[in-house]
Each structure stands twice: as C-alpha cells, then as structure tokens.
Amino acid sequence: MLRGNPVEVDDTTKAAEVFAIGIGECGSNIVGSYLKRSHDKRLPSRVRGYLLINTDRADLTKVRQKYEIPKEHTLLYGASEIGVGGRFMDGYNAIMESKDIIFDQLSNLGFEGVSGFCIFTSLGGGTGCGGTPALIDLLKQRFQEEEGRRIFVYVIGVLPFEGQSSEALNSIWAVSKLLRAQLQERGADLTILLSNRTMLKRILQWRRSDSVDYLQQELNVDIADIDSIQKNVPSTIDETADGESRTEQAFVELVNPLALDVVEAMLSPGVWESHKDVFPTTDLADYARKLDPVVVPALYADVGLIQDQASMPKQLRQMIDYAVRECSYADVGEEPNAESVYYVMSGPRSVAKAEYGMHLKEALDKFIAPGAAITPCYVQYHAGEESTDLLLLLGLPKIPELVQIINEATQLVNLHSGASPLKQGWFMRSKGTSRKELVDAINDFRELFSYYMTPGETME
Ligand SMILES: Nc1nc2c(ncn2[C@@H]2O[C@H](COP(=O)(O)OP(=O)(O)OP(=O)(O)O)[C@@H](O)[C@H]2O)c(=O)[nH]1
Ligand SMILES: [Mg+2]
Predict the structure, then answer these.
(1) Is the same domain home to 39 and 162?
(2) In sequence order, which residues have a C-beta less than 8 Å from that of residue 51 and are 6 or more positions away?
(3) Looking at the CA of 157, which ligand is closest?
(4) Which of 48, 95, 329, 437 is the most exposed place for a label (fewest CB within 10 A)?
(5) Residues 322 and 437 both lie in one domain
(6) Residue 314 CA, ligand 2 centroid: distance in Å
(7) pTM (2 d.p.)
C-alpha cells in the first residue's frame, strides 16, 4: 500500500522504516507466526524486511517449514548447528564470530538506510539471550560509529514461564547487559518485556473455552482444572520431560499471536493510511525518546465506549484501570508506579480525541510515579466504524513477577557457590561466564526494581 504512493517519498516517511530480526527459537517463531497470519505474507508497511537467525539447524528448518519462510530470510550461523543449550555466552560469541555473514545477508535483504531494528527473542534461552546484546553492539557500531547515523533498536524480549530458574538467570543477565550497554550507546533503546506466564494467564481468561479445547486437543489430555495450569506451568499436566516440552509447545502457540498484536499496535501510528489522522505524528523512534528503557505494554482491544458525554470521564477511567490490571503483557500488579507512560488511543474520530487527554491523565495518575511523563497519541479513523483500541506503554514499572525471577536466579547462584573452584566451575560450564558477572546482573536488577527489596539486600 505504502509502496508506490507519492506520500511515502517524503523524508519523514522514509526515515521510519525498520527491519525485523527474529533470533533463536522463540524470536523466529514470533516473526514466523506473524507472517503466516497476515493474509498476503507481508509485514506492516513500515517493516522493510526480516531475517530469522539461529544456531540450531533443526529449529531453523522447522520454522521455515511451519511458517513457509523463504530460505533467503533465514540464516544458520555459529559452529555448533545444534543451538547453544542455554549457554548464553556461546550465543554472544557466535554472533560476534559471524558478523560478516550476518551483515552480508542483511544487506542482500536491503537493510541499508533503515532507521531502526526490532529484535524478537526469548530472554531465557542461549542463542537469542546471548546473541541479542552482541547483535545490537554490531549494529550500533556499523551505523552509529562507521556511518555516523543514529539508529534505534528495540528488543521484544520474552520472559520465561515460572519455575525455570536457569532461564530466570539468563533473563536477568540479558536485561542488565542491554541496559549497561546502553550507557555506552551500544545497547537497546527500548526493551519491551512480554512474559510468557502473564500472556498465558490472559489468554486463558479471555478465550477460556477456546483455549481449553485447543490444549486438550494438542496435549490429548483432560484439562479439568485450568486454574492450576496458570499457576503451575509447565509441570501440571505431565511430569515427564517429553510431556513438559509438549505442554510448553502448546502454550507458546497460544501466546505468540498476543506478542504480535502489541508490536502491530506500536507500529500502527506510523503506518500511513488514507482514511486516518495521527497526532501528534508518532513514529517508532518516538517511543524510545519518551520512555524509560524497559517497558511493559498493555493492549486493550475493542474497548466498548458508549457515546455519552456525561459519563465519558468514568468510562475512560474504567478503560485505563482495565488496561493496566488485565491487559498488561507482564503483570504489573496494582501499583506499577511507572516512571513514564506512552499511550496510543485509536478509533473513530468521535472517540480518539485530544479533548479526552485530561481524563486519561487523571485516570493514569494512580499507576504512575509522581512526576512521570505522559505522552499521548491519537489515531483517528474517518469512517467511524473502526474499533477503539488502547495501547499503553509503561516505562520502568514495578513488575511483581520479577521478584520471583530474581529469587529463582539467586537460589541457583547460591546453589553453585562455594569456596571450591570446582564448585564455581558450574558458571563457566553452563553459562560460559563468571559467577561475578551473574551476581552483578542480579544486583543491577535489585537496584532497578528496588521497590520490592529490603534495603541493603545485595549479593556478595
Ligand atoms: N512465547 C514464546 N516463548 C517461547 C517460544 N519458543 C520458546 N519460548 C520460550 O523461550 C525460552 C527458551 O528460549 P529459546 O528461544 O528456545 O532459546 P534459543 O534462543 O533458541 O537458545 P538455545 O536453544 O539455548 O540455543 C523458554 O522460556 C521458552 O518457554 C515461542 O515460540 N513463543
Ligand atoms: Mg534453540
């Protein structure tokens, strides 16, 4: 649509194109399922191209077949061909060592001149978790240092299900690494956190009966108690390793479409369409300028607002309450205390309008820290029959489930700590790094999300 239209030729339009990269199994699946779902196998018009990369040949082949991805949009790299099994430093090094082939392929796919990258990855594995910071480092070096051109990089990172302590530790390392690198202009401009456990909870709440049917059919078991699934992923249904991986596979199939919806909503203000107005003009890069570096999105689709001026403030307040509490992609609890907020309200002209900004601001007040900046964006459709959708991006909110992740990671570190170098060998063997680097990462988290921690509680 955008292509060939005279409007696209102006600089601002061109400047807004992004390139999508899916790294590792999770990242590839998310981008793959997007392509499969969109009718004509196309990305939103602001996404110039995409590449799925993995160190695991079998996984890459699977993704190609499953989502019918042309071979030139995939790349196998690294020495092992069987993935890195959660050893994230191997994931990091594999990217660094494959710089040339990665850039060659990106260049064949036309990545020159894009203004940003969206990298999709899980945070708990090895290939994506370790590879993402390395990839960003290379991209920033290439564009910012060699070409002298600022680019922005967004990471859409998936937090693990509950009870996966090794993945909890990897996730903490990755986020801390991305933030620390940002201090040197070599990290992610925005890390958007999506949590598998929360997305699963949402899906089971919203599409309860569909989801149960799907799970029963996929797993071939009788799912009597869906509440216990939510609390106890993935061991509820079947304790065997095979059963676990089957369950996990079924869960990720359920949540992946949810992950895509939020990215599409973020892109939507920047996608040009003849029958809509956007103000203020908003592009992907604006999110990074206005928000803190770690963001939790909430998407409330199809809000049923009733046209009645008198009750509008109340309706808008309920909309915000519901979005924060029931539609966030990682559970932010009752008091997220976000340090910045961006909202995109889209819908018919009569609803998505700046006059309501005052009410939205009031409604957001109890969910944000004193002094937190609120940045609005309104997307108005002329026709009037569009649904009303609200996207909230919460910058650096409190995330109660991170407490659990921190605790799981801390326990694991303690388990393998001791005076003997033999004992500490675990860190190098299974993560490829030192105990100290992991302890530092955990301490970064404790500081960043200090809200939950008792003062002085740092690891030695
Ligand atoms: N939402 C979602 N999560 C996934 C998907 N695939 C894997 N995961 C989660 O991702 C984590 C595992 O990471 P993977 O992406 O499989 O790891 P990887 O990057 O391929 O790295 P290695 O396999 O260690 O080389 C676990 O927390 C999984 O639950 C997916 O398609 N969607
Ligand atoms: Mg893998």
Answers:
(1) yes
(2) 19, 20, 21, 22, 73, 74, 75, 105, 106, 109
(3) 1
(4) 437
(5) no
(6) 47
(7) 0.91
Q: Give the ligand 1 atom nearest the CA of 199.
A: 1
Residue 25 alpha carbon to ligand 1 centre in Å: 5
pLDDT in tens, the chain (460 residues): 333 344 444 444 444 688 999 999 999 999 998 888 776 666 767 788 999 999 999 999 999 999 999 999 999 999 989 999 999 999 999 999 999 999 999 999 999 889 899 999 999 999 999 999 999 999 999 999 999 999 999 999 999 987 788 999 999 999 999 999 988 889 999 999 999 989 988 888 876 667 777 777 776 655 555 555 555 554 444 445 566 676 777 778 888 888 888 888 998 888 878 889 999 988 888 999 999 999 999 999 999 888 888 899 999 999 999 999 999 999 999 999 999 999 999 999 989 999 999 999 999 999 999 999 999 999 999 986 789 999 999 999 999 888 889 999 999 999 998 888 787 889 999 999 999 999 999 999 888 876 555 555 667 7
Nearest atom within ligand 1 for CA of residue 128: 19
Q: Is 371 exposed, middle or buried (0-12, 13-18, 19+ CB in 10 A)?
A: exposed
Residue 393 sits in the same domain as residue 434: no
Q: What are phi and psi of 404, to 5 degrees?
A: -65, -45
Assess whether 373 and 445 both reside in one domain: no
Tell me, yes or no, whether 323 and 446 share the same domain: no
Domain count within the chain: 3
Last residue of a domain, one of 385, 400, 415: 400
Helices and strands, counts by H and E, the chain: 17, 11
Query: 26 C-alpha to center of ligand 2: Å?
Result: 8
| Residues within 5 A (CB) of ion ligand 2 | 25, 56, 83
Strands (E), 4-43: 18-23
